[in-house]
Design brief:
By secondary structure, the chain is of the alpha+beta class. It folds into two domains: 94 residues; 232 residues, Bira Bifunctional Protein, Domain 2 (BirA Bifunctional Protein, domain 2). Helix content is 39%, strand content 19%. The protein contains twelve helices and nine strands. The strands form two sheets. A seven-stranded mixed β-sheet has the order 1-4-5-9-8-7-6, with helices on both faces. A two-stranded antiparallel ribbon has the order 2-3. Helix 1 runs antiparallel to helix 3. The chain is elongated. The two termini are 71 Å apart. 29% of the residues are buried. The structure holds phenylalanine. Phenylalanine (PHE) binds next to strand 8 and strand 9.
Length: 350
């Protein structure tokens, strides 16, 4: 045998061995056949190694090590596959009743609740404008929920808040996120720009648009020289970030004890494009936020000088916004935990 014959058959063997894939040998018997083919007593590689001795010394020196290293590689592949197969066999159905070689069943991937996603989206829209996150307790004192917001006892505005009071304790479940305004102004020196999302509670009869537990998000800015125009610009950008750049807002005079002047802010109805539909009661507008300029009395109550500081605040219902954005007809859907509903928000709201 001359060198070129030897080389040709070495290359062929080498190519065949390297092309072998573990999956081609599903059983130990199959694996043994592969071993015999290459490394058996008269296997391809065994023959090649034997035939080396017919080559000139020079060529033997050059090709001998290559043939040896191919042998080592094949042995290693075979050994690894043998261990895998033996291991699988040990654990296979016959011995343990569990076939660990079967692929695992797909596990359900968790996802965010649509309200959680909506809150993050809203928070992000404001943090991008420089707001920082502030939070307050859901169980609140009368002072923070009402008094500090210029709603003293007997004030008629209290009637609008159907409040849950704790039994035997001077505490209540907050009826809005506005107490976080008072808490933050008391604890942190202005200038302030905060966003406070959270759960609020009202003794409302539950129906398609009312829930006794719902989410609000509060915004508060306190600085020198803040005006109503700043509020308008902020809310326009905020609503356009959330609902699209074609969104229009309008302000209607309103009343809140903690802001003066106060406004109800409407957004053009996305469901009918402003032409009028049952959702917007044919008006083309949907009420979305309460807002206004911080009442000087509130500054006094939290210990800030209204001659120095000015500000604006707004509060928005999270469900209301999500319902409009995703055309959800009933608020109760958020709280029933029906997976058929929740699964629709996989990638849509994130
Ligand atoms: N707290 C008010 C409500 O729950 C909303 C609001 C917040 C109004 C901030 C003005 C300023 O209705």
């Amino acid at each position: 045998m001359n060198t070129s014959d030897w080389l040709r058959s070495f290359e062929a063997t080498s190519a065949a061995a390297l092309a072998w894939a573990p999956a081609e040998t599903p059983t130990l018997d199959d694996l043994e056949k592969v071993r015999l083919r290459f490394l058996g007593r008269s296997g391809e590689l065994t023959e090649l190694l034997k035939n080396l001795k017919h080559l000139p010394l020079e060529d033997r020196r050059q090709f001998g090590p290559r043939a040896q290293s191919l042998k080592a590689r094949i042995s290693e592949f075979l050994e690894r596959r043998r261990l895998d197969l033996e291991c699988a066999q040990d654990l296979s159905t016959e011995r343990s009743g569990v076939d660990v070689t079967l692929p695992a069943p797909p596990s359900g991937r968790g996802r965010l609740h649509p309200l959680t996603s909506m809150v993050s989206e809203m928070t992000e829209a404001l943090t991008l404008m420089g707001y920082t996150l502030a939070e307050g307790p859901q169980v609140e004192t009368d002072w923070y929920n009402f008094e500090a917001l210029n709603i003293p006892a007997q004030h008629p505005a209290r009637d609008a808040h159907d409040t849950f009071y704790l039994k035997d304790l001077p505490l209540l479940l907050r009826t809005h996120t506005s107490p976080v305004q008072a808490r933050t102004m008391k604890s942190t020196a202005p200038p302030l720009k905060i966003v406070c999302p959270g759960r609020v509670f009202r003794r409302d009869a539950v129906d398609a648009s009312h829930s006794a537990v719902f989410y609000q998000m509060e915004g508060l800015v306190v600085d020198r020289g803040v005006t109503f125009a700043d509020l308008k610009g902020t809310l326009e950008v905020f609503m356009q970030t959330l609902l699209g750049s074609a969104t229009r807002i309008r302000f209607r005079p309103s009343y809140f004890p903690f802001t003066e002047p106060s406004a109800q802010v409407d957004v053009n109805c996305l469901l009918c494009g402003g032409r009028g539909c049952p959702a917007c009661k044919q008006s083309g507008w949907i009420e979305m936020l309460g807002a206004g300029v911080v009442n000087p009395n509130v500054f006094r109550l939290v210990g800030l000088d209204p001659a120095t500081w000015s500000g604006f605040a707004f509060g928005i219902g999270v469900e209301r916004l999500a319902m409009m954005k995703y055309r959800i007809p009933d608020i109760r859907l958020f709280y029933e935990n029906d997976l058929r509903f929740l699964r629709q928000f996989d990638e849509d709201i994130v």
